[in-house]
Design goal:
The chain is an alpha/beta fold. It has one domain: 3-Layer(aba) Sandwich (Rossmann fold), CATH 3.40.50. It has a 7-stranded mixed β-sheet with strand order 3-2-1-4-5-9-6, with helices on both faces. Strands 7-8 form a two-stranded antiparallel sheet. The radius of gyration is 18 Å and the shape is globular. The two termini are about 30 Å apart.
C-alpha cells in the first residue's frame, strides 16, 4: 500500500529509482493493459485518477502510448501534473494531462475513450458513485480498476501503522471490490475478470526488496557492463521505455514464480493488488 508515498511522491522526479518492487509491479500491470488493448482494440485511453500508490506518478500509461494509444490523464495536484508532463516530454510521448480538483465531473464528451482505468487511486475520489457514473459516461468499451489486496499481509501491516494517514487522506471504502462491483452493476457494466495480480517473491512490506532476496539466496536485479562486471544503478521502467534497456522485461521474469504458479489460496494473502475488468 505504501502510505508514505503520500508525503514523498515528488522525490522520484529528481531520482527515478523505484527499486525492484514498483518496477516489477509496472511490468505486471502492463501485461494486463496490453491484453485489454489487443483484445478490445483500444485506441483511446483515460487514466483517472493518475496518482496511485507506486513510485513515479503518472507513468503507468506510458506503455499504452508506446503501443500507439492516445492517452489522457487527470490529476488533482498541479505540481505533480507539471512533473508528469515533463517526464512524458523527455521521452517524446504525446499526452493530454489535465488538472481536476473534483473527480465528480470529467471535462470530456460522452464516449470519448475506448477504455478508462486507474491504479490504486479510487480512495482519492470524494464521491465514488458520481465518479463511476462519469467513467460510464465517457467510456465506450472497457473500465479497468486496480486496487490493493486488502487481505494481503502488506496491506494489513501498513493499514495498522498508517492509520492516521488512512483516516486523513484516503477513503478506504472506495477500494473495496464488493462496493465497486455493486456500483458498476447499477451502471449496467458486466464484470469480465476479477483477479489478483502483483505477486512477486517478496511481501508487500516496508523493507528493501534487495535485502529480502538476499535472505532467500536470490540475487537482486543488476546490470552487466561490457567487461561483465556488475553495475548498480537506479532501477526504473523509464530505461525500458526509452530504449536504454530493451531486455528489462526478461530480466524480471525470474521474480515471477509466485505470479505464474502459486495457487489462489496463497495469492490471497501474498498478492499486492487485484483488478476488476468491466465491459459494457
Amino acid at each position: 500500500m505504501a502510505i508514505p508515498i503520500l508525503h514523498f511522491w515528488d522525490k522520484y522526479y529528481t531520482n527515478p529509482d523505484e527499486g525492484l518492487g514498483s518496477t516489477y509491479e509496472r511490468f505486471i500491470i502492463n501485461r494486463i493493459l496490453y491484453k485489454a488493448v489487443k483484445h478490445f482494440q483500444i485506441k483511446t485511453v483515460l487514466e483517472a485518477p493518475s496518482f496511485g500508490f507506486t513510485g513515479m506518478s503518472g507513468i503507468n500509461s506510458m506503455g499504452l502510448a508506446l503501443k500507439g494509444c492516445e492517452v489522457s490523464l487527470l490529476d488533482h495536484d498541479m505540481n505533480r501534473l507539471d512533473n508528469i508532463k515533463s517526464t512524458w516530454k523527455t521521452l517524446n510521448l504525446p499526452l493530454r494531462a489535465e488538472y481536476v480538483d473534483d473527480y465528480s465531473r470529467l471535462n470530456f464528451a460522452d464516449k470519448s475513450f475506448d477504455m478508462s482505468w486507474n491504479f490504486s487511486a479510487l480512495w482519492f475520489v470524494k464521491d465514488l458513485q458520481m465518479f463511476l457514473s462519469e467513467l460510464d459516461r465517457v467510456t465506450k468499451r472497457v473500465i479497468l480498476i486496480m486496487v490493493p489486496n486488502q487481505a494481503g499481509l502488506g496491506y494489513v501491516q501498513q493499514r495498522y501503522f498508517g492509520q492516521e494517514d488512512l483516516k486523513k487522506y484516503l477513503i478506504e471504502s472506495h477500494i473495496r471490490p464488493k462496493t465497486i462491483k455493486a456500483e458498476m452493476e447499477k451502471l449496467n457494466w458486466k464484470l469480465l475478470h476479477h483477479e489478483l495480480l502483483d505477486c512477486p517473491l517478496w511481501p508487500d512490506i516496508g523493507m528493501s526488496k534487495e535485502d529480502f532476496l538476499k535472505k532467500l539466496g536470490i540475487g537482486a536485479f543488476s546490470f552487466k557492463k561490457d567487461d561483465n562486471k556488475v553495475e548498480k544503478r537506479p532501477i526504473t521502467i523509464l530505461d525500458y521505455y526509452s530504449g536504454r534497456n530493451s531486455d528489462m522485461p526478461g530480466q524480471f521474469e525470474k521474480y515471477e514464480l509466485f505470479e505464474k504458479h502459486a495457487p489462489e489460496s496463497f495469492k490471497r494473502f501474498w498478492a499486492h493488488h487485484q483488478y476488476l475488468l468491466f465491459i459494457r
